[in-house]
Amino acid sequence: MDYFFSILPKMGSFFLLMCIGVLIAKIGVITKENISLFPPFIIKVIMPCLSFSLMYENGTTFASLGHYVPVIVGQVSSYLLLMLLGWLSSRVCHMKYPLANIHRGCHLGGNYGFIGIPLLMVLFATGEGRQYIPICAAVDTIFMWSAGIVFFTYTKERGLSSGFRNLVNPVIISILLGLIVTSIKLPVPSFISDTLASIGNCSTPLALIYLGASLCFISLKSTAMLKNIFSLILVRMIFAPVLVYAVASRFLPETETILLTVICSTPVMASTTSVAHQYHLDEDYASASIFVTTIASLLTIPLVFFLTSFL
Known about the structure:
mainly alpha; Na+/H+ antiporter like fold
């Protein structure tokens, strides 16, 4: 129950930041034309700085990676569970290609970067647990853009090749650089480490302001799809994280259990529409899923931790 009461004010803060994003989009500070600049800046600049800073601050080395194996196994197992639930959900709802593909893909692809990391940063503000954030970011990136793309598109050759091409990205590079620097004990001048940490600390407000602004440019073209999205919320954002908590709490310490629960509680990842466009899937459903699940997450994430307090 402690985490439930800790999360409530945090979600209020998240809601306020998203409202600021909506406001500045409505008054024209952020427009449909320039909002596309935010994701590359966050992913290619903010997130790498945050990843390197966390690796350096926590002294994570190649030798210490073995300490993260239980969490990595738990995270991959959680993703496999989400894949299974997504496949079952699409079958139960009698969906066909291309709707079935994007629906089950929405189960797997959570918004770890824009919702998961900000939430973990505030939950683990004292330092304990923050060392897992870049490691889980690496696992998320590798899994989503390899096995995840295949899951979206069955076994199309282009999906597999695209996944492997995306493994080389700024976040992965920053994590490897951080591991190298800490492993060889290379001193980093304080003005450099402090600057990188300051940039990384912008991740929470900037990501949430961007999410709020982006919601202004998403249109719900059909209310018929809301039934399927409602099932997505129930399965992906409530049932799955509660199940993950129930299982993980039997094998992992509390910090690692909370970490996996948060990862599974996140709404649909923001890049789902890009995946849908690239692979000719249902873009309208992808956009609607991002919109509805992001708003719903302000309620479902506290609900998940309320339910897990009884386990």
